[in-house]
Design brief:
24 helices; 59% helix; disordered N terminus; four-stranded antiparallel sheet; elongated; 725 residues; eight-stranded mixed sheet; alpha/beta
């Protein structure tokens, strides 16, 4: 085999998008059939299903909230609960609510005929299941509104049931809240009774201790006894503080004044400790000093008036000194008195504290019991207040707990089945199932589909691709659009031959009906049209078919020659193509089943190779008859024809292996019966040529038809053959 046509090494297969599109185009019949089946079935079932109407009632739900502010001043609904609405959904669908609807509307007996219980009432559990199945709950976004939707075959009954569900849910909520509050009040009253009994016992104990301790009245907690020691201690503490403050102030003043000089003392004392007499003396001193200064300016020092003024001033100063000394002595006395008072207050305070401590220790048990009594009183009062509040709250209406916003009304048109939605889903599902089934069938289909399949599985080159609906090229003429595929095949065969002496060719196939005879006949025709002398030998002795292409008899042929009944020249016939001859198969007697595996056959092959440029031997399917394997071993070259999407790949592999086992020279594979218009993988092999020649044929057909009519020549539909010799 030539290196230019060597099969590629097997590589990993990766599907492209076009491969998927190719599968869809090829399997479009399956896809369309499944699609129509699903859509029609969906549409038919949709129209056959019973029609359901839907009615909805909208309610507003809140937590346990009263119509007015409760006695305590707070509503319990103020706290946020993210699961509140979902909880109400479950409550509405609960048996507590729906069973009351069933009972109120007598659904057990009303639905007995509908659900086929032969006149016997349904069980409540069965009715509950049917009713819950037809209830749908939804929350209006970002609100506390709940929409209760009920579906039923009777639109009036759907509205009736929707309103009944809302009514029973509202009644259940209110009843449940009141029952819960009443049970809570009973528990609180029982606790209050216990507290009153404990309080009575403590009060008796306190009264007994008061008599034993000789306590008059109720002294304040932590105080002494009936003598008001705590109050005395507080007063003495105040007196001590005041006396200490007085002593400190006077002593500080005295110490500061004694440290001053006489002139400074005269200036400071009237302000620090005002004295009326001292103030008068100081005024007189100032007046005398002024008079003396005036006289000294007018008179001499020896003047009697000046002397009198000096004597008067000296007297006043003496009186001031005496008064200053007296004031200081008075302040000193006040310091001593304040000190004594402070000491006395301190002694009295210490004595009062000791007395208070002794009295408090003596009355500690009493005060402890009294504190317990006060605590119990506060608890009793709080409990009584709570009971009163709850009793008032229970009496407040709670219409806002569940409030119907929009009542249910009978629906105008049915909501189930949703015909547009069902048909749309049918279309989508039909497409998906059809495409899926197509790909599944493609997955199960192990036949040959592409050139890559052949070269990967057989490790052999594909020498030609033959389209669908190919007839006899001898009848179609050399300009047939199909001829180009065989020209490509002829060219590849010529390049594949290693030696020009290799002239005999056979075409084999794994199974029947793969088109090997047509391929062989047209390939030989193309060789002959190229000017080479070609002979076609119909060596398919079981089911010969080449003679049908030429419309000749099959009475005398290959078997007659091999059985020595006729000479070679007598069994070879000519065809309208001068370079193409034909040897029919002849009749096959029962005594000549092994004629192909004979010396005469081998000698004939050698003789034909000397007379012709190429000799083509037709053969039966290689999987069922041994003749094909014999021919493959006797001729120079073998071609394997594989029909597109007909037989499993295992069969084609087995056919190739059989050729190789008998020593045949398999030069390549021909893919047959390809739909060029649907499979993009093969269009480029012949698409351009077909387009080109189809236009050329359209242009020339009119001319030829016109010329033939003018000349009176009719088209020749039958090929007349005659023996060559």
């Amino acid at each position: 085999m030539d290196k230019n046509f060597k099969a590629p090494v097997e590589t990993e297969v990766k599907l492209h998008f076009l491969d998927y599109w190719r599968i869809i185009r090829i399997r479009k019949t399956v896809i369309l059939a499944v699609f129509l089946l699903v859509v029609l079935t969906t549409t038919l079932v949709t129209y056959m299903l019973p029609k359901f109407y839907q009615s909805s009632v909208r309610i507003q739900v809140e937590k346990d909230v009263s119509d007015v502010t409760p006695f305590g001043g707070m509503n319990t609904s103020s706290s946020f609960d993210p699961y509140f609405i979902q909880t109400q959904f479950e409550l509405i669908n609960s048996k507590e609510v729906l069973n009351k609807v069933i009972e109120a509307k007598s659904l057990n007996s009303r639905w007995a005929a509908k659900y086929g219980t032969e006149g016997q009432p349904l069980k409540t559990s069965q009715t509950y299941t049917f009713l819950k199945r037809n209830i749908e709950l939804r929350q209006t976004r970002n609100t506390s509104l709940i929409e209760i939707r009920v579906s039923n075959e009777i639109k009036e009954e759907a509205a009736e049931l929707a309103n009944a569900v809302a009514e029973q849910y509202s009644h259940w909520r209110l009843t449940n809240e009141l029952a819960r509050a009443s049970s809570g009040i009973l528990a609180l009253e029982a606790e209050l009774k216990i507290k009153n009994e404990e309080l009575g016992l403590l009060q008796d104990k306190v009264d007994t201790m008061r008599k034993e301790k000789n306590i008059a009245g109720d002294p304040p907690e932590g105080g002494g006894g009936a003598t008001m020691e705590p109050e005395t201690v507080r007063k003495l503490e105040n007196i001590k503080i005041e006396s200490e403050s007085m002593y400190t102030r006077l002593n500080t003043l005295y110490l500061e004044l004694t440290a001053l000089s006489r002139p400074e003392l005269e200036k400071t004392l009237p302000t620090a400790n005002p004295d009326t007499l001292l103030n008068d003396l100081l005024l007189k001193q100032a007046s005398a000093e002024q008079s003396l200064v005036q006289l000294e300016k007018e008179l001499t020092e020896e003047n009697i008036e000046v002397k009198k003024a000096r004597a008067y001033l000296a007297e006043i100063r003496r009186q001031i000194d005496n008064r200053l000394d007296g004031v200081l002595r008075g302040i000193k006395s006040m310091v001593a008195a304040a000190q004594a008072q402070f000491k006395q207050a301190d002694e009295m305070l210490e004595k009062a504290k000791r007395t208070d401590i002794d009295r408090a220790h003596e009355l500690s048990d009493y005060f402890k019991t009294r504190r317990q009594l006060e605590t119990q009183k506060r608890m009793r009062d709080a409990l009584g207040m709570k009971i009163t509040q709850e009793k008032i709250d229970v009496k407040i209406p709670r219409s806002a707990v569940v409030m119907v916003i929009d009542k249910a009304e009978p629906g105008v048109r049915p909501v189930r089945p949703n015909i547009p939605l069902n048909i749309a889903l049918g279309v989508i599902v039909g497409l998906l199932v059809g495409v899926g089934l197509a790909f599944f069938i493609e997955y199960l289909d192990t036949s040959v589909k592409t050139i890559d399949d052949v070269e990967r599985t057989l490790q052999a080159p594909v020498l030609g691709v033959i389209p669908q609906n190919v007839g006899s090229l001898l009848a179609e003429g050399p300009e047939s659009p199909h001829a180009e595929s065989y020209r490509v095949l002829r060219t590849n065969i010529l390049f594949t031959r290693k030696d020009d002496a290799l002239k005999t060719i056979t075409v084999v196939s794994g199974g029947a009906g793969e088109g090997k005879s047509t391929t062989l006949f047209n390939l030989a025709t193309v060789f002959a049209q190229n000017g080479q002398r070609v002979l076609i030998v119909d060596s398919d002795l079981r089911r010969p078919s080449i003679h049908k292409f030429l419309h000749v008899t099959n009475a005398v042929g290959l078997t007659n020659y091999l059985l020595k009944q006729n000479r070679l020249e007598e069994v070879i016939q000519t065809t309208p193509l001068a370079t193409l001859d034909f040897m029919p198969s002849g009749k096959l007697p029962s005594s000549s089943m092994g004629v192909l595996n004979s010396v005469a056959m081998k000698e004939m092959v050698q003789e034909l190779k000397r007379r012709y440029d190429f000799v083509f031997f037709d053969s039966p399917p290689i999987m069922g008859v041994s003749d094909a394997a014999i021919l493959a071993s006797e001729v120079d070259l073998a071609l394997q024809v594989i029909q597109y999407r007909k037989y499993p790949q295992a069969m084609t592999i087995r056919a190739k292996q059989m050729v190789e086992k008998v020593g045949g020279n398999l030069i390549g594979v021909v893919l047959n019966n390809i739909n060029m218009s649907q499979d993009e993988n093969y269009y480029y092999y012949s698409g351009y040529y077909y387009d080109y020649y189809s236009k050329q044929d359209d242009d020339e057909s009119g001319k030829k038809n016109g010329q033939s009519k003018k000349a009176g020549v009719e088209p020749q539909n039958r090929i007349d053959l005659k023996p060559k010799y």
